[in-house]
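Hi U.,

Before I forget, here's the chain from the pilot set. I'm dumping it here mostly so it's searchable later in email.
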Amino acid sequence: VEPPTWSASDRERARSVVLLDSSNAAESAARHVARSVDEVRNLGELDGGIEHVAWAHLDALATLAASRPGEICAVVSSGEAILDVRGTGTGGRNQHLVLTALVAAKDRSSGLSDFAFLGAGTDGVDGNSSAAGAIGWQGLLDEARTRGLDACAALDDFDSAGFFEPLGAQIVCGPTGTNVRDLRVFIGIGG
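Structure:
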């Protein structure tokens, strides 16, 4: 089959229109999250290394929650974190980001009395796993430990899917047929 050819007049009449982008995804998420929390901060598009992105969300959430003690606060962003995979596990940048944030929140004094984190690819695919991402919450690391799962070992082997799947904490929706980058929602209560 021959590919179609475009004449000069065809190219002049053609135009591209962006219907949605990652900032639209973050704005929409922020609007929906605002229905269930007291305060939302949209960080917009945020790229960079996994640790940078995780800590940026944790720091923004801790600062927001400290200004509103006892209230439910959220931080939302879109973008793509950079992950240089060196291990042999399964997973992707969204699951790795959530696991990184869980370990960092436990290791750092975040000032949050309760929290939950979500990271997911809008395309429904996260790395080499069948999940789009994962959800983590304050007690998940303790629950994992009782099941013999080690969060730090999973991070070292880049096996975030192997960590989240047995805990039922993966987001599995299948390919969505579209991609406007990744979406993250971090929720917490200061106190």
